[in-house]
Write a structure and sequence with these properties.
This protein is α/β, with parallel strands linked by helices and 369 residues long. The protein has three domains: 3-47, Archaeosine Trna-guanine Transglycosylase, Chain: A, domain 4, CATH 2.30.130.10; 54-160, Transcription Regulator spoIIAA (2-Layer Sandwich); 181-368, Rossmann fold, CATH 3.40.50.150. It has helices at 54-72, 107-123, 185-193, 209-216, 229-241, 253-262, 284-299, 319-333, and strands spanning 18-22, 28-34, 42-47, 78-82, 91-96, 99-104, 128-133, 146-151, 159-163, 166-170, 199-203, 221-226, 247-250, 267-272, 302-312, 337-343, 362-368. The strands form four sheets. Strands 13-12-11-14-15-17-16 form a seven-stranded mixed β-sheet, with helices on both faces. It has a five-stranded mixed β-sheet with strand order 4-5-6-7-8. A hairpin with a 2-residue loop joins β5 (91-96) and β6 (99-104). The radius of gyration is 22 Å and the shape is globular. The protein starts with 17 loop residues before the first strand and ends with a strand.
Length: 369
Protein backbone atom coordinates (compact mmCIF):
# COMPACT_ATOMS: atom_id res chain seq x y z
CA UNK A 1 0.00 0.00 0.00
CA UNK A 2 1.26 3.45 -0.89
CA UNK A 3 2.07 5.82 1.95
CA UNK A 4 -0.68 8.21 0.81
CA UNK A 5 -3.32 5.47 1.24
CA UNK A 6 -2.59 5.16 4.95
CA UNK A 7 -3.87 7.71 7.43
CA UNK A 8 -2.19 6.85 10.74
CA UNK A 9 1.34 5.49 10.50
CA UNK A 10 3.32 4.97 13.74
CA UNK A 11 6.65 6.77 13.84
CA UNK A 12 8.49 3.66 15.03
CA UNK A 13 7.75 1.32 12.11
CA UNK A 14 10.95 -0.63 11.43
CA UNK A 15 12.25 -1.74 8.02
CA UNK A 16 10.92 -5.25 7.13
CA UNK A 17 8.65 -5.28 10.18
CA UNK A 18 5.45 -7.29 9.77
CA UNK A 19 2.59 -4.85 10.36
CA UNK A 20 -1.21 -5.04 10.33
CA UNK A 21 -3.46 -2.75 8.32
CA UNK A 22 -6.76 -1.65 9.85
CA UNK A 23 -9.66 0.19 8.23
CA UNK A 24 -11.36 3.28 9.66
CA UNK A 25 -13.53 1.05 11.89
CA UNK A 26 -10.55 -0.71 13.41
CA UNK A 27 -11.07 -3.97 11.50
CA UNK A 28 -7.92 -5.79 10.38
CA UNK A 29 -7.88 -5.98 6.58
CA UNK A 30 -4.47 -7.57 6.13
CA UNK A 31 -0.81 -7.73 7.08
CA UNK A 32 2.48 -7.32 5.28
CA UNK A 33 6.07 -6.21 5.52
CA UNK A 34 6.95 -2.53 5.79
CA UNK A 35 9.66 -0.31 4.36
CA UNK A 36 9.60 3.29 5.67
CA UNK A 37 12.14 4.26 2.99
CA UNK A 38 9.84 3.29 0.11
CA UNK A 39 6.86 5.07 -1.36
CA UNK A 40 5.12 1.70 -1.11
CA UNK A 41 5.07 1.58 2.66
CA UNK A 42 3.52 -1.88 3.10
CA UNK A 43 3.46 -4.89 0.76
CA UNK A 44 0.40 -6.95 1.65
CA UNK A 45 1.05 -10.64 2.28
CA UNK A 46 -2.16 -11.88 3.92
CA UNK A 47 -5.77 -10.71 4.07
CA UNK A 48 -8.02 -10.50 7.09
CA UNK A 49 -6.74 -11.69 10.45
CA UNK A 50 -4.19 -14.15 9.07
CA UNK A 51 -0.62 -13.35 10.17
CA UNK A 52 2.24 -14.12 7.75
CA UNK A 53 4.80 -16.49 9.24
CA UNK A 54 7.55 -18.75 7.96
CA UNK A 55 5.08 -21.64 7.80
CA UNK A 56 2.72 -19.45 5.75
CA UNK A 57 5.54 -18.54 3.33
CA UNK A 58 6.51 -22.18 2.92
CA UNK A 59 2.90 -23.03 2.12
CA UNK A 60 2.81 -20.30 -0.56
CA UNK A 61 6.04 -21.66 -2.03
CA UNK A 62 4.73 -25.23 -2.13
CA UNK A 63 1.48 -24.01 -3.67
CA UNK A 64 3.46 -22.28 -6.42
CA UNK A 65 5.36 -25.49 -7.18
CA UNK A 66 2.15 -27.52 -7.24
CA UNK A 67 0.43 -25.17 -9.67
CA UNK A 68 3.35 -25.32 -12.08
CA UNK A 69 3.47 -29.10 -11.92
CA UNK A 70 -0.26 -29.22 -12.68
CA UNK A 71 -0.04 -26.77 -15.59
CA UNK A 72 3.32 -27.64 -17.11
CA UNK A 73 4.33 -31.08 -15.93
CA UNK A 74 7.75 -31.88 -14.50
CA UNK A 75 9.69 -29.17 -16.35
CA UNK A 76 13.32 -28.89 -15.21
CA UNK A 77 13.91 -25.21 -16.00
CA UNK A 78 11.27 -22.57 -15.28
CA UNK A 79 10.15 -19.73 -13.03
CA UNK A 80 9.00 -21.18 -9.72
CA UNK A 81 7.93 -18.01 -7.90
CA UNK A 82 6.52 -14.99 -9.69
CA UNK A 83 6.33 -12.41 -6.91
CA UNK A 84 2.84 -10.96 -6.31
CA UNK A 85 1.30 -13.52 -8.68
CA UNK A 86 2.27 -16.23 -6.17
CA UNK A 87 1.45 -14.09 -3.11
CA UNK A 88 5.15 -13.56 -2.38
CA UNK A 89 5.58 -9.89 -3.37
CA UNK A 90 8.99 -8.79 -4.55
CA UNK A 91 10.43 -12.30 -4.80
CA UNK A 92 11.31 -14.15 -8.01
CA UNK A 93 12.78 -17.66 -8.01
CA UNK A 94 13.83 -19.57 -11.11
CA UNK A 95 15.44 -22.99 -11.57
CA UNK A 96 18.01 -23.12 -14.35
CA UNK A 97 20.43 -25.96 -14.99
CA UNK A 98 20.06 -27.36 -11.49
CA UNK A 99 20.61 -23.98 -9.82
CA UNK A 100 18.04 -21.75 -8.18
CA UNK A 101 18.30 -18.06 -9.09
CA UNK A 102 16.74 -15.85 -6.41
CA UNK A 103 15.89 -12.24 -7.21
CA UNK A 104 14.43 -10.15 -4.36
CA UNK A 105 13.38 -6.72 -5.60
CA UNK A 106 12.10 -5.32 -2.29
CA UNK A 107 13.47 -4.96 1.20
CA UNK A 108 10.94 -7.34 2.70
CA UNK A 109 11.54 -9.93 -0.01
CA UNK A 110 15.27 -9.83 0.80
CA UNK A 111 15.08 -9.64 4.59
CA UNK A 112 11.87 -11.59 5.31
CA UNK A 113 10.74 -13.88 2.50
CA UNK A 114 14.14 -15.05 1.27
CA UNK A 115 15.39 -16.16 4.72
CA UNK A 116 12.06 -17.86 5.42
CA UNK A 117 12.24 -19.81 2.16
CA UNK A 118 15.94 -20.52 1.70
CA UNK A 119 15.61 -24.10 2.93
CA UNK A 120 12.73 -24.78 0.55
CA UNK A 121 14.67 -23.23 -2.33
CA UNK A 122 17.76 -25.32 -1.60
CA UNK A 123 15.66 -28.48 -1.77
CA UNK A 124 14.75 -27.88 -5.43
CA UNK A 125 18.23 -26.73 -6.51
CA UNK A 126 20.79 -29.52 -6.05
CA UNK A 127 23.68 -27.56 -7.58
CA UNK A 128 23.32 -24.37 -5.55
CA UNK A 129 21.49 -21.08 -5.01
CA UNK A 130 22.46 -17.85 -6.79
CA UNK A 131 21.41 -14.46 -5.44
CA UNK A 132 20.88 -12.24 -8.47
CA UNK A 133 19.58 -8.98 -7.03
CA UNK A 134 20.40 -6.44 -9.73
CA UNK A 135 17.05 -4.95 -10.81
CA UNK A 136 17.11 -1.13 -11.00
CA UNK A 137 13.85 -1.03 -9.01
CA UNK A 138 15.82 -2.05 -5.90
CA UNK A 139 17.14 1.49 -5.59
CA UNK A 140 13.59 2.68 -4.80
CA UNK A 141 13.68 0.37 -1.79
CA UNK A 142 17.01 1.71 -0.56
CA UNK A 143 18.79 -1.45 -1.74
CA UNK A 144 22.04 -1.91 -3.64
CA UNK A 145 22.85 -4.60 -6.19
CA UNK A 146 24.00 -8.02 -5.00
CA UNK A 147 25.30 -10.90 -7.10
CA UNK A 148 26.65 -13.86 -5.16
CA UNK A 149 26.32 -17.53 -4.29
CA UNK A 150 24.09 -18.20 -1.30
CA UNK A 151 24.62 -21.96 -1.30
CA UNK A 152 26.89 -24.32 -3.23
CA UNK A 153 29.74 -23.64 -5.64
CA UNK A 154 29.36 -21.32 -8.64
CA UNK A 155 29.21 -22.90 -12.11
CA UNK A 156 32.38 -22.92 -14.19
CA UNK A 157 30.56 -21.10 -16.99
CA UNK A 158 27.11 -20.84 -18.52
CA UNK A 159 24.55 -23.50 -17.59
CA UNK A 160 21.98 -25.05 -19.90
CA UNK A 161 18.25 -24.34 -19.82
CA UNK A 162 16.07 -26.96 -21.51
CA UNK A 163 12.83 -25.97 -23.27
CA UNK A 164 11.40 -29.07 -24.90
CA UNK A 165 14.00 -30.12 -27.48
CA UNK A 166 15.79 -26.76 -27.43
CA UNK A 167 18.84 -26.10 -25.24
CA UNK A 168 19.93 -22.55 -24.41
CA UNK A 169 23.02 -21.47 -22.53
CA UNK A 170 22.37 -19.14 -19.61
CA UNK A 171 24.95 -17.00 -17.82
CA UNK A 172 23.75 -16.91 -14.21
CA UNK A 173 26.12 -14.06 -13.37
CA UNK A 174 25.72 -12.00 -16.53
CA UNK A 175 23.12 -11.21 -19.14
CA UNK A 176 19.73 -9.64 -18.51
CA UNK A 177 17.21 -10.13 -15.71
CA UNK A 178 17.60 -13.65 -14.30
CA UNK A 179 19.57 -14.78 -17.36
CA UNK A 180 16.75 -16.22 -19.48
CA UNK A 181 13.24 -15.19 -20.52
CA UNK A 182 11.03 -18.13 -19.62
CA UNK A 183 7.90 -16.01 -20.07
CA UNK A 184 8.13 -16.34 -23.87
CA UNK A 185 8.45 -20.16 -23.79
CA UNK A 186 5.08 -20.92 -25.42
CA UNK A 187 5.32 -17.99 -27.81
CA UNK A 188 8.65 -19.37 -29.05
CA UNK A 189 6.85 -22.64 -29.72
CA UNK A 190 4.27 -20.72 -31.78
CA UNK A 191 7.11 -19.13 -33.74
CA UNK A 192 8.58 -22.53 -34.48
CA UNK A 193 5.24 -23.85 -35.69
CA UNK A 194 4.90 -20.99 -38.21
CA UNK A 195 8.44 -21.10 -39.57
CA UNK A 196 8.65 -24.04 -41.96
CA UNK A 197 9.93 -22.92 -45.36
CA UNK A 198 9.82 -19.25 -44.38
CA UNK A 199 12.38 -16.45 -44.35
CA UNK A 200 12.44 -15.30 -40.71
CA UNK A 201 13.69 -12.11 -39.06
CA UNK A 202 14.07 -12.06 -35.25
CA UNK A 203 14.48 -8.49 -34.01
CA UNK A 204 15.83 -7.79 -30.48
CA UNK A 205 16.90 -11.43 -30.52
CA UNK A 206 19.05 -11.44 -27.35
CA UNK A 207 20.53 -14.98 -27.18
CA UNK A 208 18.26 -16.37 -29.88
CA UNK A 209 15.14 -17.78 -28.27
CA UNK A 210 12.83 -17.07 -31.20
CA UNK A 211 15.51 -17.40 -33.89
CA UNK A 212 16.55 -20.89 -32.83
CA UNK A 213 12.92 -21.99 -32.47
CA UNK A 214 12.34 -20.75 -36.03
CA UNK A 215 15.40 -22.53 -37.40
CA UNK A 216 14.41 -25.78 -35.70
CA UNK A 217 10.88 -25.28 -37.05
CA UNK A 218 12.23 -25.55 -40.58
CA UNK A 219 12.81 -21.93 -41.61
CA UNK A 220 14.68 -21.74 -44.89
CA UNK A 221 16.62 -18.71 -43.63
CA UNK A 222 16.79 -17.11 -40.18
CA UNK A 223 18.35 -13.74 -39.32
CA UNK A 224 18.72 -12.42 -35.77
CA UNK A 225 19.22 -8.74 -34.91
CA UNK A 226 20.56 -7.36 -31.64
CA UNK A 227 22.79 -4.48 -30.58
CA UNK A 228 24.77 -6.62 -28.11
CA UNK A 229 27.80 -8.45 -29.46
CA UNK A 230 27.89 -10.55 -26.30
CA UNK A 231 24.28 -11.67 -26.76
CA UNK A 232 24.87 -12.53 -30.41
CA UNK A 233 27.98 -14.56 -29.50
CA UNK A 234 25.83 -16.56 -27.08
CA UNK A 235 23.22 -16.92 -29.85
CA UNK A 236 25.83 -18.39 -32.18
CA UNK A 237 26.82 -20.93 -29.52
CA UNK A 238 23.16 -21.78 -28.92
CA UNK A 239 22.60 -22.29 -32.65
CA UNK A 240 25.59 -24.63 -32.86
CA UNK A 241 24.42 -26.49 -29.75
CA UNK A 242 21.05 -27.11 -31.39
CA UNK A 243 22.45 -27.98 -34.80
CA UNK A 244 20.99 -25.06 -36.73
CA UNK A 245 22.27 -22.06 -38.68
CA UNK A 246 21.25 -18.49 -37.80
CA UNK A 247 22.61 -15.35 -39.43
CA UNK A 248 23.31 -12.45 -37.05
CA UNK A 249 23.27 -8.65 -37.45
CA UNK A 250 24.82 -6.53 -34.69
CA UNK A 251 22.90 -3.32 -35.28
CA UNK A 252 20.39 -0.90 -33.82
CA UNK A 253 17.00 -2.41 -34.61
CA UNK A 254 15.27 0.86 -35.52
CA UNK A 255 18.05 1.88 -37.91
CA UNK A 256 18.31 -1.55 -39.52
CA UNK A 257 14.56 -1.88 -40.11
CA UNK A 258 14.48 1.53 -41.79
CA UNK A 259 17.34 0.43 -44.06
CA UNK A 260 15.67 -2.88 -44.85
CA UNK A 261 12.48 -1.08 -45.84
CA UNK A 262 14.48 1.23 -48.14
CA UNK A 263 16.19 -1.85 -49.63
CA UNK A 264 12.77 -3.47 -50.22
CA UNK A 265 13.68 -6.58 -48.25
CA UNK A 266 10.89 -9.09 -47.58
CA UNK A 267 10.38 -11.67 -44.85
CA UNK A 268 7.71 -14.30 -44.35
CA UNK A 269 7.85 -14.07 -40.55
CA UNK A 270 9.05 -11.17 -38.41
CA UNK A 271 9.37 -11.36 -34.62
CA UNK A 272 9.51 -8.18 -32.53
CA UNK A 273 10.41 -8.83 -28.89
CA UNK A 274 11.88 -5.53 -27.66
CA UNK A 275 12.92 -4.68 -24.11
CA UNK A 276 10.42 -2.62 -22.11
CA UNK A 277 10.05 0.81 -23.68
CA UNK A 278 8.16 2.13 -20.62
CA UNK A 279 9.35 1.54 -17.05
CA UNK A 280 6.48 3.62 -15.70
CA UNK A 281 3.50 5.75 -16.66
CA UNK A 282 5.77 8.78 -17.08
CA UNK A 283 7.28 7.12 -20.16
CA UNK A 284 4.05 5.81 -21.67
CA UNK A 285 3.71 8.30 -24.53
CA UNK A 286 7.31 7.79 -25.66
CA UNK A 287 6.88 4.04 -25.42
CA UNK A 288 3.77 4.04 -27.57
CA UNK A 289 5.57 6.08 -30.21
CA UNK A 290 8.44 3.57 -30.20
CA UNK A 291 6.06 0.60 -30.49
CA UNK A 292 4.28 2.28 -33.38
CA UNK A 293 7.48 3.00 -35.28
CA UNK A 294 9.02 -0.45 -34.83
CA UNK A 295 5.80 -2.21 -35.83
CA UNK A 296 5.21 0.04 -38.84
CA UNK A 297 8.71 -0.78 -40.16
CA UNK A 298 8.25 -4.50 -39.57
CA UNK A 299 4.86 -4.55 -41.31
CA UNK A 300 6.39 -3.03 -44.43
CA UNK A 301 8.86 -5.93 -44.54
CA UNK A 302 6.17 -8.62 -44.62
CA UNK A 303 5.57 -10.67 -47.74
CA UNK A 304 1.92 -11.27 -48.70
CA UNK A 305 0.61 -13.91 -46.33
CA UNK A 306 3.54 -13.27 -43.99
CA UNK A 307 3.34 -13.30 -40.20
CA UNK A 308 4.23 -10.72 -37.55
CA UNK A 309 4.67 -11.83 -33.96
CA UNK A 310 4.91 -8.60 -31.98
CA UNK A 311 5.34 -8.35 -28.22
CA UNK A 312 5.29 -5.78 -25.44
CA UNK A 313 6.69 -6.44 -21.98
CA UNK A 314 6.22 -2.88 -20.68
CA UNK A 315 4.24 -2.92 -17.42
CA UNK A 316 2.83 0.52 -18.16
CA UNK A 317 1.43 -0.51 -21.57
CA UNK A 318 -1.92 -2.25 -21.29
CA UNK A 319 -3.14 -4.81 -23.80
CA UNK A 320 -5.65 -2.23 -25.05
CA UNK A 321 -2.89 0.34 -25.53
CA UNK A 322 -0.75 -2.17 -27.41
CA UNK A 323 -3.53 -3.37 -29.71
CA UNK A 324 -4.44 0.24 -30.50
CA UNK A 325 -0.90 1.32 -31.33
CA UNK A 326 -0.28 -1.75 -33.51
CA UNK A 327 -3.54 -1.02 -35.32
CA UNK A 328 -2.44 2.58 -35.89
CA UNK A 329 0.87 1.32 -37.25
CA UNK A 330 -0.95 -0.96 -39.72
CA UNK A 331 -3.09 1.93 -40.91
CA UNK A 332 -0.06 4.15 -41.46
CA UNK A 333 1.84 1.34 -43.16
CA UNK A 334 -1.06 0.72 -45.52
CA UNK A 335 -0.98 -2.99 -44.67
CA UNK A 336 -3.96 -5.26 -44.08
CA UNK A 337 -3.46 -7.63 -41.14
CA UNK A 338 -5.60 -10.28 -39.51
CA UNK A 339 -5.12 -10.82 -35.79
CA UNK A 340 -5.12 -14.58 -35.23
CA UNK A 341 -4.08 -14.74 -31.57
CA UNK A 342 -3.53 -12.63 -28.47
CA UNK A 343 -1.16 -14.34 -26.08
CA UNK A 344 0.45 -13.69 -22.72
CA UNK A 345 3.28 -15.28 -20.76
CA UNK A 346 3.86 -18.98 -20.21
CA UNK A 347 2.06 -20.61 -17.24
CA UNK A 348 5.06 -20.25 -14.91
CA UNK A 349 4.37 -16.49 -15.03
CA UNK A 350 0.77 -16.50 -13.74
CA UNK A 351 -1.46 -13.46 -14.08
CA UNK A 352 -3.68 -12.54 -11.13
CA UNK A 353 -6.78 -10.56 -12.00
CA UNK A 354 -6.58 -8.52 -8.80
CA UNK A 355 -2.95 -7.56 -9.50
CA UNK A 356 -2.93 -5.87 -12.92
CA UNK A 357 0.84 -5.42 -12.79
CA UNK A 358 1.24 -9.18 -13.35
CA UNK A 359 -0.41 -8.82 -16.77
CA UNK A 360 2.65 -7.27 -18.37
CA UNK A 361 3.46 -9.43 -21.42
CA UNK A 362 1.32 -9.23 -24.56
CA UNK A 363 2.01 -10.90 -27.90
CA UNK A 364 -0.09 -10.45 -31.01
CA UNK A 365 0.04 -12.94 -33.88
CA UNK A 366 -0.84 -11.08 -37.10
CA UNK A 367 -1.00 -12.30 -40.71
CA UNK A 368 -0.69 -10.00 -43.69
CA UNK A 369 -3.33 -10.17 -46.43
Amino acid sequence: MFRGELRDVPDDVRPSEIVRIEDSRGRVVGAGYANPASNILVRILTRGEEVPTQDWAREMFRNALTRRLERMGDVPDLRLVHAEADRLPGLVVERIGGYAVVSPDTLGAEEVLMPWLLGEIEAIAPRGVVLRAIAPVRSREGLTSRLEMLRGAPPDGPVIAQEGDIRYEVDLFGGQKTGHYFDQRENRQLCGSLSEGRRVLDVFSYTGGFAIAAALGGARETTAVDSSAEALAALARNAERNGVSVGVREENAFDLLRQMVRDRERFDLVVLDPPPFARGKDHLDAALRAYKEINLRAMRLLSPGGWLLTASCSHAVSLGDFVAVVGAAAADAGVGLTRTAVRGPSPDHPVRVEVPETDYLHLLALQRD
